[in-house]
Structures are given as structure tokens and as C-alpha cells.
Amino acid sequence: MRMTNPQDLITVSIVGAGSRAGAYINALEANYHGKFKVVAVAEPRAERRKYFQEKYQIPDSMIFGGYEEFIKQPRLSDIVIIATLDDMHYIPTIDAIKKGYDIILEKPIAMTVEETVAIGEYGAKHPNQLIAICHVLRHSPFFRKIKEIIDSKELGNVIDIQHNENVGYYHFAHSYVRGNWRNTKISAPFIVAKSCHDLDILLYLLGDKHCQRIASLGSLTFFNHDNYRPDIMAPRCADCSIEKDCPYSALKIYSSGKIRSVVFDTSTEETLRKELATSNYGRCVFACDNDVPDHQVTILEFEKGVHATFNLSAFTDKIHRSIKVMCEYGEIRGIETTKEIEITHFGTNEKRIITPQMLAGGHGGADTGFIINFMETYLNNKPFDSTLAMSIESHVMAFAAEESRLQNGKMIDVAKYHQSIKDKTEGRKIG
Fold first, then answer.
1. In this predicted model, what pLDDT tens digit does every residue of 313-357 receive, in sequence order?
2. Which of the residue ranges 6-10, 77-81, 86-90, 344-348 would you say has the lowest mean pLDDT?
3. pTM of the model
């Protein structure tokens, strides 16, 4: 519900001004320049606050050191982008719903399944507010084209899907061994934090078919203290005798590129060395406090006898997704990095390659597609492609997979699991 007049600029607040919030603001700038303005920022890092304050000429009174200060204010804008760390999603999101904000909420919705379901139940009571979870892959030209092929029925019905999230060895070491998502005490489970949108993609591709049962196995096999060798290794990469031969060396991973810019912003080489000597990011990957699995395999049973497998692994050279959709009369193969989709018809040797036109921006243009869909819904009342209920469903699937993993692969009935969480949270005080 807008608080400004239709002829005015749309106002936006940012709660958590990191790289993901920056990606959405960049997409707004590229596609809706002159139609919005950032009016408030809540962020603990001074350099990020300064960046947005100077760019949008925000007064000091609208700059806050964190979400705790922001939620003490009355409603400040039409839209709030909530892109804090996982354990800081629930409170500002509930507050934003209460105050009438339209919301862009970075995934995961919350750190626990109870908080996730509670947000879904509370959000459902406010149908006039647009609450958009950043399941951006639904807006990727790559996955949209695959869905278009599936829905055309040229290959018949889907029987089985194999989907792979190739995390990348260096990205896993950065985010899930040394970084903010390394430990379940401070982050959602690995499959939730990293792959709730992969499970969402399976729901998206299969349309009206809900997931009925799910089972998952995975463990922390490699990045653990058992593989730390004090005779040749050191707690920090800078002091390690085998650093030059180690692909997980912090000195290598943060020497350049996107990961360095995300963590250390504009740090000089001297500042970087000091940071790696004192921060979590300079630690040996075998001597950290990480507890999330480094690989996980999940099997899913959907309605009408459709099955899927999902493989999530740290042990890949590149960061990308790959998928194979097996249908009655043919198969679809796709690799995200090449942007190529191969369609094969059984018995005819007929194959064709499709390369969808990509949009600018992150996730193969999916960030841009998400923002365009959100703004067209907001400005022109066009349908939004992913309701809050859909996002809750895929999150519950991810949490159910983790529940299965913790119970050595026990098969979980998804509907019963979801209902059990609803029963637990019923009557819960919101806020």
C-alpha cells in the first residue's frame, strides 16, 4: 500500500545495505531511474551507510546503525528492502508488515522454520500489501525458457528432474566455511540459505504439482578439524607452509575479484593483509567453527508420480546450476554458465539448441527480471509471479530436507511437517 501520492516518486528504505540490496537498487536504477528515491538506510557498516547517503542525499536523521533503530521509527517509505543477515530477518519483517510497508525480502525468509511459517501466516492477514521474497531465479530467462518448453507439452509430461547447484570450491570456502553462513547458530541451514530458491525452481517448473515427500543426506566431510595437520598447516593462511599449494588459501581467494569486493570493499593491499590476519576470512578452512554440510543430496516426490533429485555440492570448479528434465517423449538439458538449453526428441535424433536472450544484472538477469516484475505489479497492478504462499512452500521443503538430513535421511511427509509447524506457531505472539 503506497503512502505517497501516485504522481510522486516511490520511496524506498534499505534495511541491510550489503551486496544483495545493492543489486536490487542497481536494477531499479537501470530500469526505473527517476521514478524512485532511497529515503532511509539502516546498516551497521559506516562505509555502506555513507555510500547510500551521499548517492541519494539522505539526511542524517534517516540514517540508522541497524534495524533496531529503524523499527523504532514510524513508517518512512512506500517500500522497504530487507537484506540483513539471516538471523535479522524476522523482527524487521514483522514490523514492516505491521506498519503497512510493501516489502522486498531477501531469502531466506527467516532463520528457522517456525519464524518462516509465522511470517507466512501473518503476511496472509495483510493481503493488500505486496510481500515479495527474492526468489529471483523464477525471473531468469534461462529457467523461464525451460518452463515454456515444459508447458508447451512438446515432450509430453515431466517424469523426473535432476537439478544441480554447483556452489564452487572458493565460494563455499568464503561463505560457508569462513563467512556469515558457516554455522547454524547464526544462519539458516545450508540447504535453506543457499538453495531454497532451487527448490522453488522445481515448484515453478512443475506448476500445479506440490511436493509430497522429501528425504535428504549430507555431511561435513572435508572442511573439518580432522583434516587439519598442525605439523604443516597454521590457523591462518598467512602463516601456513603449504599456502601456495592450497586452492582454499585466503590469500588467493581474496586477492582480487567479486568476493574480495563484497567483503573488503575498497581495501588497500595493506588493509587486506591486516584484515586477513585478524578476521574470520583469513582462517584455515580446516580450523574454523563451521558446522554446515559441504555436500547434500535430496530426493523429492511430487504429485502425479513426478520425482526429482537435487545435488548441492561445494566440490565444483565453477559456480553454476545445471538441470536435466526427463519427459515422456524427450529430455531438456541446460547449463546456466553457457546459457544453452538442449532439447532432444526420442527416436528421431532431433536436437535443437536454444540460447535465451539474457537480461543485464546478476543471476543471469534474474535480479533485473525480479525488480521489473515487482515494479510492474506495484505501478500497474500486473500479477506478481511468486506469491508469499509459494515462497513459504519452497522454504518449508528446504527445512523438511534439513530435518530429514538430521534424522539420517528419514522420509518426511511435507504437508504433515508444514502442519506440525503451524500447530506449534499457532497463537504465537507476533513481534
1. 999 999 999 999 999 999 999 998 888 999 999 999 889 999 998
2. 6-10
3. 0.93
| Cβ–Cβ under 8 Å, residues 170 and 259 | yes
> Which triple of cell numbers denotes residue 271?
588493509
* N-term to C-term CA, the chain: 20
Higher per-residue confidence, 285 vs 359 = 285
Name the 3-class secondary structure at 379: helix
In order of their start, the domains of the chain are: 10-137 (3.40.50.720), 138-223+291-358+386-425 (3.30.360.10), 225-282 (no CATH)
Q: Are 230 and 287 in contact (CB under 8 A)?
A: no
- SS3 of residue 398 by DSSP: helix
CB 182 within 8 A of CB 351: no
Burial 57-84 (b: 16+ CB within 10 A, else e): ebeeebbbebbeebbeeebbbbbbbbbb
Long-range contacts, stretch 204-207, CB < 8 angstroms, 24+ apart: 204/137, 204/138, 204/143, 204/147, 204/386, 205/143, 205/146, 205/147, 205/150, 205/158, 205/161, 205/325, 206/158, 206/161, 206/302, 206/306, 207/150, 207/151
Instruction: Sort 45 into a burial class: Cβ within 10 Å, 0-12 / 13-18 / 19+.
Output: middle
Whether the per-residue pLDDT at 56 is higher than 80: the answer is yes
Q: In this predicted model, what pLDDT tens digit does every residue of 169-184 receive, in sequence order? A: 999 999 999 999 999 9
For residues 298 and 280, the answer to whether their CB atoms sit within 8 Å is no
In the structure grid, which three cell numbers stand for residue 214, read together?
522429501
Residue 419: Cβ within 10 Å count: 12
Q: How many C-beta atoms surround the C-beta of residue 125 within 10 A?
A: 9
d(CA 184, CA 188): 6
Buried b (16+ CB within 10 A) or exposed e, 169-182: bbbbbbbbbbbbbb
